[in-house]
């Protein structure tokens, strides 16, 4: 929504109370259904809002579809990457470019119900919370394998980060402007918000919901990306794997001592039959430990190398907000409360 402007001066935009960020990649089937379900909910709030759709380099009809949606829905804002950069990069761009006093992130597949957004906003305003997590109370629509791997992921992350990380909380959350500004100030090259947001320690609450089936299309988070997310989560947020390498090295040292004692005793008893099996197993064990330790060190060295390069995580090719005049709106303090 725009303010009246003086002729010849750039148009100033008022700050919306709420921004809804949607990372989008090849969602030509799901996006219309998402808009059909989301728009009445946001209109019913009777507050100024914007929806920031971040196109992560889609290769189907999604970009054209987003432009059509924007024509019919002025509050829908499109941000388009120059190339595919990944879900977390799209989420970062949406959060960093959102104008609202409160920012909600939600995926375009409708597995996280948008009907919970009013509850999140109400809870944040009534209790002066900076973060409201969407917590999955029921994952019955997921496969057994997905539930088990997700459970293992959250268990491991809570061990590394602590109980500040809510169990079964994904990227469906509300952030206040203070939390968004704190995240923008973080020098993370590859942020994992599931860990970074709880680390802030800001006042938070939870909204529980039932996870639904994907509304259309196929998942964009196969096993390989889930493993990548887990690896990024661990290596970006904890040095524990390096300590694991140390413990594995100590374990291999004691195994070697035990093998040396066993060999000495066998020689003293005269039963020094060629010990090919024990020697072979020992060599395999030591070699495996060395490779694991080298691999763990390589992960961290690779991230240091990436950070030193300081390459941007994404390139924005287009932002429809720039078509409306000033890309940075005037902020009114009276919005938050």
Task: Give your account of this protein's structure.
The protein is of the alpha/beta class and 337 residues long. It has 2 domains: 18-220 and 312-335, Spore Coat Polysaccharide Biosynthesis Protein SpsA, Chain A (Alpha-Beta Complex), CATH 3.90.550.10; 240-309. Helices cover 47% and strands 15% of the residues. It has helices spanning 31-44, 62-72, 87-97, 117-127, 144-161, 177-185, 193-200, 223-237, 240-268, 276-309; strands spanning 18-24, 49-55, 76-81, 102-105, 131-138, 169-176, 204-210, 316-319. The chain is elongated and about 90 Å long. Residues 19-181 form the Glycosyltransferase 2-like domain. One of its GO terms (cellular component) is plasma membrane.
What is the ordering of alpha helices and beta strands? EHEHEHEHEHEHHEHHHE
Class per helix and strand makeup: alpha/beta
Gyration radius, to the nearest Å? 25 Å
End-to-end span in angstroms?
A: 20 Å
Tell me, what's the shape?
elongated
Mean pLDDT: 78
Number of strands: 8
Protein name: Glycosyltransferase family 2 protein
Family: Belongs to the glycosyltransferase 2 family.
InterPro entries: Glyco_trans_2-like, Glycosyltransferase_2, Nucleotide-diphossugar_trans
Transmembrane segments: 247-269, 275-297
